[in-house]
Amino acid sequence: SDHMENICGYLMKYTNLVTGWQYRFFVLNNDAGLLEYFVNEQSRHLKPRGTLQLAGAVISPSDEDSHTFTVNAASGEQYKLRATDAKERQHWVSRLQICTQHHTEAIGKNNPPLKSRSFSLASQGSANSPGVQRRPSQNAVSFFNVGHHRLPTGKKVPIMQPDHLVDVREMMSQAEGQQRDLIRSIECLPVSGHLTSLDQDLLMLKATSMATMNCLNDCFHILQLQHASQQKGSLPAGTTISWLDPKISLANHFKNGAAQNFPAEINKAASVREEQPIAEPCQLTREPEEINPEEELEDICDDKEDDLGAVEEQRSVILHLLSQLKLGMDLTRVVLPTFILEKRSLLEMYADFMSHPDLFIAITNGATPEERMIRFVEYYLTSFHEGRKGAIAKKPYNPIIGETFHCSWRLPKSDVATDAGSNFSAHSPSEQGTLSKDLEGQTELDYYTVKFVAEQVSHHPPVSGFYAECVERKMCVNAHVWTKSKFLGMSIGVTMVGEGLLSLLEHGEEYTFSLPCAYARSILTVPWVELGGKVNINCVKTGYSASINFHTKPFYGGKLHRVTGEVKQNTTNTVVCRVQGEWNSVLEFTYSNGETKYVDLTKLSVTRKRVRPLEKQGPFESRRLWQHVTESLRDGDIDKATEHKRALEERQRNEERLRVETETPWCTKYFLKEGDGWVYHKPLWKTVSAVQTQQMDTN
Question: Where is the PH domain (predicted)?
Fold first, then answer.
């Protein structure tokens, strides 16, 4: 065809994490259906550095930018390429797609499909495999035929009978048994020698077999849905459909790399679900609940995160996980091993960013717009240290849709700064504990209360909403965060997509802000956390803004956890404050008057949050929801924690399927969708506005 032209030219190719992007000379050979590349144009007469067969390949423009695209070969090999501009990318993508389509169709014409092909799932099973004991009626040939057959005109597809689904389920159980035998055989290999259980090809085989069984289970679920939809019209009123749940859970074949007794594991998981009342389908009201701060008690939980222990013991789990991941892969749906979990939900982690409520309240006490912006920046930068709970890269629980977390803070009014330069509390942590006890006897007029509520408003994508307010000071903050995680080779990156809004109602000011990205580095040794990216804080009314850079450590040299920033007046472009230091250590603030202030975050006092006891919490409040997982982690029982975690996740999946099947939309409890964001249903700015309107009407 006219469009089948051989093209060549320079493109950037992503090589690896060390060397990154490299210019390479690419040649599209339409006749052979090959994409080849060379170090440069001069070496074109030599053997190519790399070659991809385009038959069956997928050419995908990237949504990262307008220059990048990927070529995914049928063999599994992938080239990540970048053109100089969008026009050049489109030229390469269109020519590659035409060549790919031509050679893929040619293979189809030269290799017509077989008329019929059948196989027995149990033909290669071991003596202990369930496949050896199947009934004579369970003939695989009658259920699995691969081929193309046309139905006679006018004939309807016969409705699959329920007993057929039962038979299919039985046959899938046989396949699951064989897959378990395969895994046992691999995991029983020695950890050293010529062929080990950590062999990369064997790890890939384990991952591929797992993916295959997951795919079959998804297909089986589709059959269940089709059967239900075909039968729906003939069912009597009030009849419910009992779904044929898999007899064997595929969610966790690998527990820290150890060989397992699978039947015992299944029975144990079932017993966990029975003892857990929260694992039942949720029939709760979604009406907002007013939390009485008087029911909240000072938090006595002190879940200091231990290190990950000997990472060598968990290496097989990590390697198995890595064998399933590709560079840039979205990790939203990837189940991570339990041993890396923190003992708190992500919603509670957002609350821990508010652990310095004295600095939060002090923002509105600033005498000028400049002071208030600087105080907000000071508060913002001091919030990450306590929110992270240490340097080890552990991961909080993924909140379940509908999960909520409530807490509050009380602090004496005398602890809140009113003048510039005294923003930071001088109380040590031990003194702070004494102050907290003294609060119990104080009257309401002697302290401020900051209330906090968070809710997981969406599961796919995972979006959390959180809101905090101090009614006495007429200030509140509302934010929504979508956590997007990606695999980056030896790191995991989490982008915090969303926006926060701080409202100072006494001054009529609103401050918008964003959050930095987070990275878990060195995931095969001792994982550690760093923050990265540029965030902006802006107040349109006053014309003040702040630009803050969280610097990731360079490959060679450089400091860890470095942060720099500046506050300026946009109208005059005057910098009024500069900041530098480490976000988890010491920060240095330099003001326009020449004054410099140092803040040691490790010595900064922390106000303990107040939470309701577990017995007073609702079943979807974070601590009660995850209590069995948390208790197991405290006891060091990773297997039991995994089973409790799986029970929660299975319930969430089942309820999501039910909503899809019944076309029932999810209703949030505390947050409402407004445009691209989520807003608390009763924010302080609405309450204050309503009170002011009522007072005006009264007058």
Answer: 4-101
Domain containing residue 27? 7-110
Looking at the predicted structure, is the pLDDT value of residue 402 above 50? yes
Q: Could you tell me which residues are beta bridge partners of residue 450? A: 409
Do β-strands 20-29 and 8-16 pair in parallel, antiparallel, or remain unpaired? Answer: antiparallel
Residues 470, 358 contacting (CB under 8 angstroms): no
Q: 407 — phi, psi (to 5°)?
A: -165, 175
Query: 118 in a domain, yes or no?
Result: no
Q: Which residue has the tokens 């903050």?
A: 477
Tally of domains in the chain: 2
Kindly list the distances between the CA atom of residue 591 and the CA atoms of 35, 118, 577, 594, in Å, as whole numbers in the listed order: 58, 78, 4, 6
Tokens describing residue 328:
């840039």
The reported pTM is 0.57
Residue 150 one-letter amino acid: R
Question: Looking at 56, 88, 110, which one is the last position of a domain?
Answer: 110
User: What's the rounded Cα separation, in Å, for the pair 137 and 120?
Assistant: 13
CB 342 within 8 Å of CB 305: yes
Residue type, 457: V
CATH number of the domain residue 40 falls in: 2.30.29.30
Residue 603 lies in a domain: no
User: Vertex 567, ends 564 and 572: CA angle to 5°?
Assistant: 135
Residues 66 and 685: their CA atoms lie apart, in Å, by 41
More confidently predicted of 694 and 222: 222
Return the HEC string of 74-107: CCCCEEEEECCCHHHHHHHHHHHHHHHHHHHHHH
Residue 108 CA, chain-centre distance (Å), reads: 40
Q: Return d(Cα 248, Cα 676) in angstroms, integer.
A: 40
Q: Please indicate, yes or no, if residue 645 is contained in any of the structural domains.
A: yes
Q: Which residues pair with 503 in a beta bridge?
A: 476, 510
Both tokens of 566, joined, read 């500046």
Last residue of a domain, one of 71, 87, 110: 110
Torsion of Cα atoms, 12 then 14 then 20 then 21, to 10°: 0
What distance lies between CA 115 and its chain's CA centroid? 45
Of the candidates 462, 312, 452, the one whose C-alpha atom is nearest the C-alpha of residue 397 is 462
Residues 378 and 420: their CA atoms lie apart, in Å, by 12
Q: Give me Rg for the CA atoms of the chain.
A: 30
3-state SS of the chain: helix, strand, coil percent to 5? Answer: 35, 25, 40
Bridge partners for 673 per DSSP? 678
Distance, in Å, from the CA atom of 566 to the CA atom of 568, rounded to the nearest integer, reads 6
With a CB cutoff of 8 Å and minimum separation 6, the contacts of 349 are 342, 387, 389, 396
Torsion of CA 327, 332, 337, 339, to 10 degrees: 110
Task: Tell me the mean pLDDT in the region 98-111.
Answer: 78
- Closest of 652, 642, 650 to residue 620, by C-alpha: 652
Give a three-class secondary structure readout of 617-667.
CCCCEHHHHCHHHHHHHHCCCHHHHHHHHHHHHHHHHHHHHHHHHHCCCCC
Check residue 280 and give its pLDDT. Answer: 36
Let me know: does 190 contact 199? Beta carbons within 8 Å. no
Amino acid type, 74:
A
405 in a domain, yes or no? yes
Max mean pLDDT range (164-168, 169-173, 410-414, 491-495): 410-414
Contacts of 573 (CB under 8 A, 6+ apart): none
Rounded distance, CA 535 to CA 376, Å?
A: 13
